[in-house]
Amino acid sequence: MSDLSGPSGHPELFVAEPLVRTEIKIGYARVSTGGQRLERQIDALTAAGCRKIFSDKKSGKTDLRPELKACHAFLDAGDTLVVPSLDRYGRSLQDLINMVAALRERGIGFTSLHENLDTTTPGGRLVFHVFAALAEFIRELIVQGTREGLAAARARGRVGGRPTVATEEVIRAARDLLPDPGRSITSIAKLLGVSPGTLYNHIPDLRELRAGAVPRQLEASAK
């Protein structure tokens, strides 16, 4: 995992725009329910000047989004990825931060039409800097709340000792922590007082949740 912090300890993911700009825009659209249609998103991306558009038609909660992977692999340094809105791209704040950070590492810009955010501009980079700080704050709150909740549960005798215990609270906390790229599955299991196998057994989409936690995931998909 790469170090995304500067000397001051703050994220410096969006310090400067790509050194070389191709002016090529590539679009990505996604529908989240079976009743939604892609036409409006595609029209917006076309109007924004996208040369090629990738689109996923299944819910991001249950699908690995193959078209997104293909889109990431298609992008070259200097290109800009354009999405209709942030929720069409990232499944969570942390997922969004990780993927845009990976784009930045590859020299690829990112634009969200609905929110009018563009990481090739100083204002857009500032917004994502704030997003990254907010995501870190949320992770710290989750960890703190998880520890306090588990301590209280153990005091009441509901959790302890046995690594196979997987209460609703534990599973919910695990799902919150799994997208965090700074924590391994083993460390999350240890924090929650269960075994890694328990997490795999009780969270069917564990691997998908972890997929959004790897900052270099776009580089891997491009190989």
Automatic annotation (TrEMBL):
Q: Which residues form the active site?
A: 32
Molecular function GO labels: DNA binding; DNA strand exchange activity
Q: Which SUPFAM superfamilies does this one have?
A: Homeodomain-like, Resolvase-like
The UniProt entry, under CDD domains, shows: HTH_Hin_like (cd00569), SR_ResInv (cd03768)
Q: Which InterPro entries match?
A: Homeodomain-like_sf, Recombinase_CS, Resolv_N, Resolvase-like_N_sf, SSR_resolvase
DNA-binding in keyword set: yes
Q: Name one GO biological process term.
A: DNA integration
Which keywords fit this entry according to its UniProt record? DNA integration, DNA recombination, DNA-binding
Which residues span the membrane?
Answer: none
Q: Which PROSITE patterns match?
A: RECOMBINASES_1, RECOMBINASES_3
Query: Is DNA-binding included in the keywords of this UniProt record?
Result: yes
The residues covered by the Resolvase/invertase-type recombinase catalytic domain are 24-157
Q: Which family does it belong to?
A: Belongs to the site-specific recombinase resolvase family.
What is the official name of this protein in its record? Answer: Site-specific DNA recombinase
Task: Identify the species of origin.
Answer: Actinacidiphila glaucinigra
